[in-house]
Hints:
The protein is of the alpha+beta class. Helix content is 59%, strand content 18%. Strands 1-2-3-4-5-6 form a six-stranded antiparallel beta sheet. Strand 2 and strand 3 (170-183) form a beta hairpin. It is elongated and about 95 Å long.
Amino acid sequence: MNKLKFTIFDKYIFKQVLMATLVCLFLFIIVWIAPETLVRTIKRILIEHVPFIEATKLLLYEIPKVLAKAIPVGILLGSLFTFDTLSKNSELSIFRGVGLSFNRIMAPVLVLGIILAYFCYVVNDKFIPYTSAKAGEAGGYDVHFVYIIKDENDKPKQGLIVSNFSVREIKNLILLNFAPNRYEDAQMFNSIIFAPYALKLNDKWLLKEAKQYSINPNGIYQEIKNVGDYPILNEKLSDEVFQLMKNATRRDRSYTNKDLGEYVKLLKKQEYTDEHNFMLAKYYQRFLHPLTCIIFAAIGCLLGFSPPRSQRLVGFTIGVGMIFAYYITLPFFDLLAQKGAMWPFLAAAFPIIVFVAAIFVIKKARDL
C-alpha cells in the first residue's frame, strides 16, 4: 500500500513535469499557428473585411486541432526536460539513494500521462468536431457527388450526379439511366434526366422541374421532354445516399467518435472499400492516439535520465526525432489501410507498438 501512496516526491515530480509540459504546449501551439493561420486571419480582416471578433473566433477554433497533436509532444518534451534537469542536479541520484526505483520515480509522470490521455481523447471526440462545425467546415460544397444505383442483381442501373449540395439543399442533379446493352469499353445510356434541384423527403428524393433527354442506341438525343417531379431512390436508400453525400467532403476530424463509427458502418454496407478502410483506421486512431501521451511520458523520462556530465542534446534530439517520425508516418499508414495493404487496426496501432518496443530498448540501453 505504501508504494501506491502519493508522497512528497511524487508531488514534486508531478508539479515539475506539469509546468514544463504546459510551457511546451504553449510554445508548440504558438509555433504551429503563427506561420499560416495567423496570416490567414489577418488577411480575412484586412482583405475580406471580416469583423475582428469573428476573425478572432475563427483563430480560436483552430486551437483544439493543434492541441490534439500538441499534448503528446508536450508531455514527452516536458518529462524529458524535467528528468534531464533532475539528473544534472543529481536529484534523481538522491531519490534513488533513498530507495526509490526508477519505475517508482516515473509513476507520477505516468499518472499525468493518463490524465492528459483522457483530455486528448475528449479533445478529439468533442472539442474538434464542435469547433469544426463552428468554423463552417460542414457548410455548402461546390463539388460533385456520384452514386451508382444498382438493381436486384447488383448491376449498375442508374448513375446519380449532384453538382452542388449542403446539409439543406441539393442542386443541379443529373440522373443517368443505363441502357441494357453494354460494350466492353463503354456504358450506354437510354436517357439522361436533369433537375435544377431536388427535395429530400422521408421516403425518396424528388427531382423538381426535371427534363428527360432520351437517347437512341446510337447515342444521339432523339427527344427532350419535361417530366416535372421525378422520384428516385427508395425509403431506406434515400437516407443512406443522403448521408453519404453529406459526409463526402467532411474530414475525419469533424466527426464525433459515435458519428464516425456510424459512417464507417455505412461505408461498409455501401461497399466503399477504400474509404471504409481509411475511415476505419481513423476511427481506431481516436482510441489509440491518446495512448501516446502515456507512452511519450515514459519515453521522456527514460531519455531525460542521464549521468550529470552527459550531453543533454542527445536525449532531446532522439525525442524530437520520435515526435517527427510519429506524425510524418501517420499519413503513410493511413494510405496502407486505405489501399488494403494493411489491416486498419494494425495501421492505427503500428506506431504505438513501435514506441512501446522503444521503451524497452531505451530502458535496457540505459541499464535501468
